[in-house]
Amino acid sequence: MTTPHLRQDLASMPAYKAGATPKAKPGLETFKVSANENPYAPIPAIVDAITKAAQSVQRYPDPASIRLRTKLANKYKVNIENIQVGTGSVAVLTQLIQASSTVGNEVVFAWRSFEAYPIITKVAGAKPVMVPLTKTFEHDLDAMAKAITDKTSCVLLCSPNNPTGPAIKKEAFLKFIKQVPETVLVVLDEAYTEFVRDEDAVEGMRDAWKKPNVAILRTFSKAYGMAGLRVGFCIAQPHVIETLNKVALTFGVTNIAEEAGLAALDNEAELLQRIDMLVQERSRIVSELTKQGWNLAKADGNFIWLDLKEKAIDFATKCEELGLSVRVFANDGVRVTIAEKTANDRLLEICLKFQD
Questions:
Q1: What is the distance between the alpha carbons of residues 171 and 163, in angstroms, rounded to a whole number?
Q2: Contact criterion met (CB below 8 Å) for 66 and 80
Q3: DSSP string spanning 245-282?
Q4: Are 208 and 216 a contacting pair, CB within 8 Å?
Q5: Does the pLDDT at position 265 exceed 70?
Q6: pLDDT at residue number 1
Q7: Across the chain, how many H-helices and E-strands are there?
Q8: Which residues contact 242 (CB under 8 A, 6 or more apart)?
């Protein structure tokens, strides 16, 4: 059979796999704690904005998302030329890689980190350079600095790190950024930054964004509970944003997504209360698991990391049997989202029995 020309270098590349949905269990409430989603339903203001915007879906959205970019610029006290929005932060990350990296380039990032990093890098034709995490599951910034060569086009930093949890320390970041050539783009992926309570952690808008080679990635998916609408954004210097616009997906952010984003920003105080509730639950879970004897990585996001190594699949199977779908990384560990209290309590029960 004759087939169309397809890139052979993609044949061995695994596709990104999203967190699994739990299988139905008769008589048992199931919970999806595999995708780091916000467990709370959208606030009424966001639902109202979506409903109203749905009345005009026959029209194309604003391709520049001017209103959302303007509100974000006002929130972060930057110019609109410093903001680019896209269909989730992963889409904006794809643009950043496309804009900076191609065949012959290298992209440096920690591993294990966000699973999309190596995929996006390879699709752009660049080579992933994976630097192992420290024994405490943190970025080894000294080793990452040493991994930079004249082929390096981009460095990806995930803070807090997904899936292991720790945020990068401000002091370590500032030391690292001084060692990075200004010709190398540094992307600080802060998808979970709203959950950070560590005062020593790096803050992109305080510590990094004014640098000419730094781009800050943020999203509405996690803290704002809008994962299904796909809205993310980048804050960087105008020369970076201008290049991003050239590789942006035309009409990517829908009018529904933009209106929901505007409503979220207008009602941020209500959303922040929910974040505080999740952080409190995170603290409770970490405390209880520590009492059980688990040695946990520092949890700065809306999830925890269980360093189960070869027992990871067995643990995930036990969770599935009891109505929890977790994110398993074979022979490495399991990531579990902070979710509804009922789901969290069930996790604690499973963890206690698994320790026996």
A1: 22
A2: yes
A3: HHTSPTT-S-HHHHHHHHHHHHTHHHHHHHHHHHHHHH
A4: yes
A5: yes
A6: 66
A7: 12, 12
A8: 81
Each residue's pLDDT tens digit, 243-253: 999 999 899 99
Q: Express each pLDDT in 75-102 by its tens digit.
A: 999 999 999 999 999 999 999 999 999 9
Cα angle vertex 76, ends 96, 207, to 5°? 70
C-alpha to C-alpha distance for 287 and 280, rounded to whole angstroms? 11
More confident residue, 92 or 26: 92
- Of residues 208, 217, 197, 340, the one with CA closest to residue 281: 340
Contacts of residue 167, Cβ cutoff 8 Å, sequence gap at least 6: 159, 160, 161, 193, 196, 198, 201, 202, 298, 300
SS3 label, residue 196: coil
Q: Where are the alpha helices (DSSP H) in the chain?
A: 44-53, 66-76, 89-100, 116-123, 141-147, 170-179, 204-207, 238-246, 255-266, 268-292, 312-321, 341-355
* Contact status, residue 215 vs residue 187, Cβ threshold 8 Å: yes
- Structural domains in the chain plus CATH codes: 18-36+269-355 (3.90.1150.10), 44-266 (3.40.640.10)
Helix (H) or strand (E) holding 101: none
Q: Are 302 and 290 in contact (CB under 8 A)?
A: no
Percent of the chain exceeding pLDDT 70 equals 99
**322/346 Cα distance (integer angstroms):** 8
DSSP 318-341: HHHHTTEE-EEETTEEEEEE---H
In sequence order, what are the residues at sequence separation of 6 or more whose Cβ sits closer than 8 angstroms to the Cβ of residue 92? 84, 85, 86, 217, 232, 233, 234, 244
Distance CA 188, CA 210 (A): 13
- Using CB atoms within 10 Å of the CB of residue 125, give its burial: 0 to 12 exposed, 13 to 18 middle, 19+ buried: middle
Nearest C-alpha neighbor of 343 from the set 295, 282, 297:
282
What residues have CB less than 8 Å from 332, skipping those under 6 apart? 112, 308, 309, 312
Contact 92, 234 (CB under 8 A): yes
Here the tokens at position 111 are 């591993």
CB neighbours of residue 74 within 10 Å:
11
**Burial label, 78 (beta-carbon count in 10 A; 0-12, 13-18, 19+):** middle
